[in-house]
């Protein structure tokens, strides 16, 4: 019990940081880059939102407590920094932009979310067993990760008593996500390489 008491505030802090780094900051930056007409930043942020949608899918998979959510959460944290630095043409365009507050904030966010994601992968790797064993998933250490998604459900889906249906929506989202990822890896990556502007 002491372990869970120690773990709970850390888990909730992680969720709060996730909202800040992976939702609020990139949304503000996207709007800012649209206003300033910085196309390379816009393109990278749109790609970011496509990839980061796996974190929202994970929340819906966690609502009914499905084990796979522990694995998709880690996968999302791996894919986010990859997508932020993968595109050679976007990196060059952003690097060549004149100095500005937007460029400084954007670059700072990119490094911050990369560090946050990599630290998250390291920390969450301790909970990988939660994604493979039903017995382990029911332990208090695993269940503490489900508290925030359940609160999210109470706030945004107060009339939905069926947690399984919300999990089903998450599963549908995951299927679409995987299909798009496979298409990207097998088709688009071979044709376009690390160029995003040709997409």
Describe the structure in your own words.
The protein is an all-alpha fold and 199 residues long. It has one domain (2-192). The chain contains nine helices and no strands. It has helices spanning 2-35, 39-62, 68-85, 88-96, 101-124, 134-137, 140-143, 147-156, 163-192. Helix 1 runs antiparallel to helix 2 (39-62), helix 1 runs antiparallel to helix 5 and helix 3 (68-85) packs antiparallel against helix 5. The protein starts with a helix and ends in a 7-residue tail after the last helix.
Task: Provide a count of the helices.
Answer: 9
As residue ranges, the low-confidence spans are none
What's the Cα radius of gyration? 18 Å
Average of the residue pLDDT scores: 92
Broad structural category = mainly alpha
Describe the oligomeric state of these chains in a short phrase: single chain
How many beta strands in the DSSP annotation?
0
Order of helices and strands: HHHHHHHHH
Shape category: globular
Question: What is the helix content?
Answer: over 70%
β-sheet strand percentage? under 5%
Distance between the termini: 51 Å
């Amino acid at each position: 019990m002491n372990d869970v008491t120690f773990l709970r505030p850390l888990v909730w802090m992680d969720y709060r940081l996730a909202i800040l780094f992976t939702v609020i900051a990139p949304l503000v930056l996207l709007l800012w880059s649209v206003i300033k007409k910085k196309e390379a930043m816009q393109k990278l942020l749109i790609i970011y939102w496509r990839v980061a949608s796996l974190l929202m899918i994970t929340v819906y998979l966690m609502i009914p407590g499905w084990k796979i959510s522990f694995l998709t959460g880690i996968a999302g944290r791996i894919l986010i920094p990859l997508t932020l630095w993968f595109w050679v043409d976007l990196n060059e365009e952003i690097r060549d932009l004149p100095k500005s507050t937007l460029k400084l904030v954007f670059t700072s966010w990119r490094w911050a979310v990369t560090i946050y994601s990599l630290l998250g992968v390291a920390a969450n790797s301790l909970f990988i067993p939660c994604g493979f064993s039903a017995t382990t998933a029911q332990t208090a250490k695993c269940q503490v990760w489900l508290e925030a998604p359940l609160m999210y459900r109470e706030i945004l889906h107060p009339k939905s008593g069926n947690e399984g249906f919300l999990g089903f929506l998450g599963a549908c989202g995951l299927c679409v996500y995987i299909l798009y990822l496979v298409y990207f890896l097998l088709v688009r990556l071979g044709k376009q390489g690390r160029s995003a502007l040709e997409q």
